Amino acid sequence: MYQSESLYRNLQAAGDMASYDEHVKQILSEKRVLAHILTGAVPEFEDMEPDDVVPLIDTPAVSGIPLDPGMTGSMIIGNNTENTIAGEGTVTFDVFSSVLAPTRLIGTYQKMYVDVEAQKDPSPGYRIVYRGSYYDSRMISFQKDRDFTGSDYDSLKKVCSIWLILDAPKRLANTISQYELEGSAIYGQSAGIEKCDLMRIIVIGLPGKCPAESETPPLLRLLWTLFTTELTFEKKREILETEFGISMKPRIEKEMKEMCNWSEAILQRGVSLGTERGIEIGTERGIEIGANRTKLETAKALIGLLPIEVIAEKIGLSPETVSGLK
Questions:
Q1: Three state DSSP letters for 241-278
Q2: CA dihedral 68, 69, 71, 73 (to 10 degrees)
Q3: For residue 2, which phi and psi values (nearest 5 degrees)?
Q4: Span 206-220, mean pLDDT?
Q5: Closest residue by Cα to residue 172 from 137, 204, 219
Q6: What is the average pLDDT score of the chain?
Q7: C-alpha distances in angstroms, 291 versus 238, 277, 287, 295?
Q8: What is the C-alpha to C-alpha distance for residues 163 and 176, in angstroms, rounded to an integer?
Q9: What single-letter DSSP state applies at residue 148?
Q10: Given 31, 41, 53, 123, which is the most exposed site by the fewest CB atoms within 10 A?
Q11: Which helix (H) or strand (E) holds 289?
Q12: CA 259, CA 236: separation in Å to the nearest integer?
């Protein structure tokens, strides 16, 4: 059974919205989680088991690690999450790592660069796949004088950016999509056209509700379990242990209690605000209607902060009603 105390710690703290993004990145940087993402979404690893992929992953780097001096234009060892090119600014990757990917020759491997990005906003004002193309391009360009010198472009390593849409709209929910470069003949019959998989973009839309174990790829169920607010931590731990072989030993009971107190305070503040807004209507009938409305408004505002069943119990709505507000 794979054990990860740091994964347990970050799952416990993921309810703290002030540091939500950082905890998501820390969870995704777990090699065991990365191994599931690779085997579930990246073609090179589709015939492998996560246990066999874990040793092939270099130590992942998470955004916030300082940039090593001279990342471009010099040979350096290890991974960094920041990539700086003169005149092109800095790109910071969420979770960046190199991994040994199987090749067509049995028993041989080649280095691949992988970037995993957690995207909470499904419509950030640009196309995710376009940003993925830019990130892939940066991973290609920083290989100059790092993985090859001069004009030895055949030594370029494959790159792959993986985008997790945490709050995916219906059109993207419960999907895994892949984008690659493909050639086509413009004139004449060309025997030299081939698929170019040097750069790959993968977009994963997390399910909006609990996916049945038999009706969805294991990767989607794993990611939903990790990041949903509809499950208690104990239920998450049960699924991770029984279905994915990830066992966690809790050692931070104090932090867990503090997080529960924080969540309770946020909930009570939301209920109080809802009651005040209802009273402002001014008449007995108005108060009733206003209170009903603000219950729904309060519940909707708390989705993503607390488990559905907790919101329903505290506000006085059915879990089905709260779930329907998503």
A1: HHHHCEECCCCCHHHHHHHHHHHHHHHHHHHHHHHHHH
A2: -160
A3: -75, 130
A4: 82
A5: 204
A6: 74
A7: 37, 8, 6, 6
A8: 10
A9: B
A10: 123
A11: helix 284-302
A12: 16
Cα–Cα–Cα angle for 127, 165, 182, nearest 5°?
50
Cβ neighbors of 235 (< 8 A, separation 6 or more) are none
The string of pLDDT tens digits covering residues 246-278 is: 776 543 233 333 433 444 444 554 555 444 443
Q: Are 299 and 317 in contact, with CB atoms under 8 Å apart? A: yes
Q: Which two tokens stand for residue 234?
A: 């104990």
- Amino acid type, 127: R
1, 68, 174, 213, 234 from 242: Cα distances, Å: 10, 40, 22, 12, 12
Q: What is the mean pLDDT of residues 293-318?
A: 72
Mind listing the pLDDT tens digit for each residue in 75-96?
223 455 556 555 455 667 888 9
Give pLDDT, residue 102.
Answer: 92
Give how far Cα 161 sits from Cα of 143, 157, 158, Å: 15, 13, 10
Q: Which alpha helices (DSSP H) does 73-143 contain, by range?
A: 128-141
DSSP character string of 211-230: PPTTTS-HHHHHHHHHH-SS
* C-alpha torsion sign, points 271, 274, 280, 282: negative
Separation in Å, CA 20 to CA 10, 198, 252, 267, 292: 9, 33, 18, 17, 30
Tokens 């270099």: give the residue. 58
Of 27-36, 53-62, 236-245, the poorest mean pLDDT is in 236-245
Reading the block at residue 107, the tokens are 């028993």
Locate tokens 């049960």: which residue?
238
DSSP 206: -
DSSP helix/strand/coil, 187: coil
Q: Tokens 């993968």 identify what position? A: 202
Q: What is the pLDDT of residues 122-144, one digit of tens each?
A: 788 889 999 999 999 999 988 98
Q: Residue 10: pLDDT band by 50, 70, 90 thresholds? A: low
